[in-house]
What does this fold into?
Amino acid sequence: MQNISAILKNVSKPGRYTGGEYGQIIKDKSKVKARVAFCFPDTYEIGMSNLGMKILYGALNQLDDVWCERVFAPWTDMEEKMRKYNIPLFALESKDEIKKFDFMAMSLQYELCYTTAINMIDLAGLNIFAKDRNESDPILLGGGPCAYNPEPVADFFDIFSIGEGEEALCELVQLYIDMKSKGSYSKKAFLREASHLEGFYVPSLYDVEYNEDGTIKSFVPKYEDVPKRVIKRVISDLNTSYFPTKPVMPYIETVHDRIMLETFRGCIRGCRFCQAGMVFRPVREKSAEVLNAQAKELYKNTGYNEISLTSLSISDYSCLHEATDSLLEWTNEKKINLSLPSLRADSFTKELMEKVSSIRSSGLTFAPEAGTQRLRDAINKNLYEKDLLNAVSLAFRGGKSMVKLYFMNGLPTETYEDIEGISTLASLVVDEFYKTPNRPRKPLTVTVSVSCFVPKPHTPFQWEPQNSLEMLCDKQKFLAEKITDRKVRYNWHEAKVSRLEAIFSKGNRRLSKAIAQAQAEGMVFDAWEEYFDYDRWMEIFEKCGIDPNFYANRRIPFDEILPWDVIDIGVNKSFMINENKKAYESLTTPNCKEKCSGCGANRLGKELTWCPNKK
Amino acid sequence: MYISHLDLARTMQRIITRAGIDIWYSEGFNPQPRLTFAVPLPVGVESNCELLDFKINSYMSCEEIAKRLSDSFPEEMKVISVYVPEQKFKNIGYIDYTINLFSSKLTEESCEIIKDLFSKECVITKKTKSGEKQVDISNYIKLVEAEKIDGGISIHTILTADNENYLNPEYFVSAIKNKLSILQDNEVNEYYTITRNNMLDLDMKGFI
It folds into this structure.
């Protein structure tokens, strides 16, 4: 470690690499039976803000026989020095190199982290392809949202955890310990055995055959005992499941440097473009009582002065009022701010407004996603213009003068009329401000932020092509010309980034060649503007004989075998197909609270107790 | 040691909250706890003695505060003492440092060169907000002792640290680096550590 300390003087933000924070878990390595290096393929500041990592770190360390440590991707200046002086990737707690661990677990949060993830395997001194690693190398475990279509990175990993991991990972590590102690362990035997655990996918146990046109001909398990489809894991009761209340406290400032309180999982809404809304089904809530107790415990153990209630759509939390009331009883006095991200415009009430106005932020964000009612119906957003105008009017009366609106370009069925609708809607928001009698005296800013639609696996739009780069750019230009209101600020998302996201999110195993090539050429941190290089990626695809259009811009027939069909998220394909067809008729589907639409996710509970409408 | 002054202040604020100490907040729209560190610690410098000043709203004994803080500190931070201040931070005049240089190029003779270097005019280039400036730092250096240790040299020095005349120990090191042509590129085999030992008042007596 003396070597590392010497280097740290010459890298940016050395606090990323030192560990030693309050709350970190140190165990006696001679006494534990399995060591897990939990790797996050992005910077410390981003990884330390990830709630999933906090949960899994805590859950694994609850086991006496297991020591889980943290590893983040070194920034390029640090990587350069590590390579120069042959310092392998190390874990923050023990500073031991990753090769010494039993598991190298990787959280895959975003497709553009793939090169960084693979680069971390390389920095650990391991072969990046699973088939090239040997018996004594750590088991490469993947998980996180990208594991719902693990195929583009399937060749690099030994096994994937599908769905919620806090119970599953403990079972997997326990199996490893048991097999080791019984002497029945070999990597091969372990992976075969692990494929029988619920929620684990071992890619090497499947044969994939392709048709000449590149589509999948067959995707079958190599052995009879290996499941044809892997059903995702879900936690059945959030009130009793593990939740970390003594997290590691970073010294340096992180992205979400506050208490993150998870209120519920899943979403009742069913927007047709949204992967999170499908893969986290069914909805499961935490009670206000448990939430309040966890908040108190977290405050005592962290000293943070901000609590954020997290979920996919906080205003759909059925005990929101009860929860905020019990929190505000003690948080105000202790000068703790309460923040409620992901508010829906149609459930933004005066009462809620008064509660959140205790936060000093002067702005509010809503996501209408589309400019016209027709398109909002097609994507099943179920939000009306009057709801949005009501919400902003309330916000203006409450003293806010900054409104941010999120939209998407390139949604299925979109026309130029819909795009113009974005500009119209923004102007209506501006008008609403001037109609408000007690509006704030501060100047108004309405920010319109437009991203590009990326078709995602396990959504009703998974068969949809993405607009071509030219079309997306043209639409962005068109909107720029339509927005003439000087109070409206217009931001758009780089279309090239969205295109690369589309290629990887709907990718198959053949993409691993391109990812390996990119890593070999030194590409890393694609999600960072300073390192994103679209043209370079296109060259790599060409070099590897991969046609990006095949992945991003092709309409897939409903009966084609999809690379991610091997993963069963609980929602039936027939439901997805039906939702896709309804989009083309601009027909909406009621949310889960109004009526059960029979998506199928409730079967994961094995009894009809979860979905709000089935209670 | 590897965190900035602002990060340390934020960390300390959270430690005090965890410790349940009722610290005095600033008034106004955005109340902030009032914490003051004496002479910000530069990134990369280790310290055996940092001074922090804060006010509390209700009485708590120094022993109780010390105990609560100790329980809330991360392992690498320790409470030395909690006391009611007798002098203000502006009375800090000097800081006592140990600087260890590690390089195979360092010999007994280097010790003499180092002592000699600061006994007369010693000009270095100082980067300031308004550009680069040539400064003679010899007046800021009150003591230089150097001895050969295994793998390098250990230097004990006292540098001025009052409000107007603060010398960052990095400048002291860079003067030596230039003079002896060491620590230029290979940072793994050649490196240095800086440790703050103590803060001294204007009479060069221990501040506490």
